[in-house]
Amino acid sequence: MFHLINWIKQNKIGAIIVGVFTFATMILIISLAQQNQLTTRPDQVPLRTGPGLNYKQITKLKAGTKLTVVAKNNGWWQVKRDNNQKVGWVASWVANNTKLKTATQLSEATIVLDPGHGGSDTGAISTDGKHYEKTYTLKTALATEKVLTNAGARVIMVRTKDVVVPLLYIPLKAEKDNADAQISFHFDSSESNNSASGVSQYYYNDNSQSLAQALNGSLNNLPLENRGYETMPYLVIKDVTRPAVLLENGFINSDHDFSYIRQSSYQQKIAHDVKSGLVAYLSNLYPNNNGQ
Description:
Layout: H1 2-35, E1 37-39, E2 45-48, E3 57-61, E4 66-73, E5 76-81, E6 87-91, H2 92-95, H3 105-108, E7 110-115, H4 133-150, E8 154-157, H5 169-176, E9 181-188, E10 199-203, H6 209-218, E11 226-231, H7 235-238, E12 244-251, H8 255-261, H9 264-285
Parallel strand pairs: 7-8, 7-9, 9-12, 10-11
Antiparallel strand pairs: 1-4, 2-3, 4-5, 5-6, 10-12
Helix pairs in contact: 4-9, 6-9
């Protein structure tokens, strides 16, 4: 009798263990399956032939479209629709965006923002010696990040704090993230105080000229004179294959310019003008949103 009771107990424990293991396995399978499922949040999410804005658009997906994720590549997901075996690519940050109502070219873009200088590298200094370029490049870049993120774009910041970033790291980041645009923020300085004023845009490689032109046009709205755009072999825009520009948004050692530079409203104005310039740039680069 004693042996029979032990046998029953042992088998109950075994059955419980098997049951728990089976249940855990089912939960894991369901969890893994859900990880490979995607339901588009915004409307008009482009489905493309490859992982990037430069690939041809196959169609636009309505909000609520159910997709199965087949592969992933730098934020772009290869997917297929439940009712169709044909595959395509979507920008995951767009498809999963719960705040964006309708997808746009800008929302599909990856933008690297580089606030110049930082840490022990103060950059240029105001006429009273109390204000550093690094402070205002960061404030302006952060304002721009917020504006672009609200528009749905994937924004990658080179720095978000007062730290030194090696110059060689900046173009490498744009390459790694396959950025559609890299924008460096700076404030100019003349040889003598209060001897120059205005904003300028710089590029180096041929594939960056149209980006510089678009930003030149949008930055005409600033209260400071637009001195125009030109080529310049700055390291951060020279040693990169991705489209890259450097913006000088006023002379920090000009009391007139600095009266604007220090204002958050001026920084916000730059941010919105940069957004407008990017919209124009992408529209010209990819007419009809169809890639190349």
